[in-house]
Design goal:
5 helices; Ferritin; mainly alpha; 75% helix; single chain
């Protein structure tokens, strides 16, 4: 059976997870101010989680006959996330707000993946999207709690 829509969503996730990891990495490098001491190592944890999800998504894509994007050029061209040049002029709150936007986008993408993989009857991919969304939503909750906002999913 061919899972064309699921393959497309998995590959979109490959591009977006790669770009999200880059955005988190930039936050890691350019953060300063209150919260630095505990947030700086937290960014390493977030990058590890994104890269672990990226690996699972990419391997599932290959398993069902797809070819994951694998170059920086492809990630940049295919991702719906945008990047900015790093600067030191943003507050910790601004940086965390940006990460919350990224994580909200990923949650919505994984929701779309749930619908498509369910439609195509691809239960293993559906489970991957579900697990990924759970992890992303937990991180989104934590980011928004840190900046004093309640999460509305």
């Amino acid at each position: 059976m061919t899972y064309e829509k699921t393959q497309a969503l998995l590959n979109q996730a490959v591009a977006d997870l790669s770009k999200a990891a880059s955005i988190v990495h930039q936050t890691h490098w350019y953060m300063q101010g209150p919260g630095f001491f505990y947030l700086h190592p937290k960014m390493d944890e977030l990058m590890d989680q994104l890269n672990e999800t990226l690996d699972v998504v990419s391997e599932r894509l290959i398993t069902i006959g797809g070819s994951p994007y694998s170059t920086l050029k492809e990630f940049d061209q295919q991702s719906k996330l945008s990047e900015e040049v790093g600067t030191f002029d943003k507050s910790m709150t601004q940086r965390l707000e940006r990460l919350a936007e990224v994580y909200r986008y990923l949650s919505d993408l994984f929701q779309e993946g749930l619908a498509v993989s369910d439609e195509e009857g691809d239960d293993p991919s559906n489970g991957i999207f579900s697990d990924a969304q759970d992890s992303i939503q937990k991180t989104l909750w934590m980011l928004e709690a840190e900046i004093g906002r309640s999460t509305s999913l």
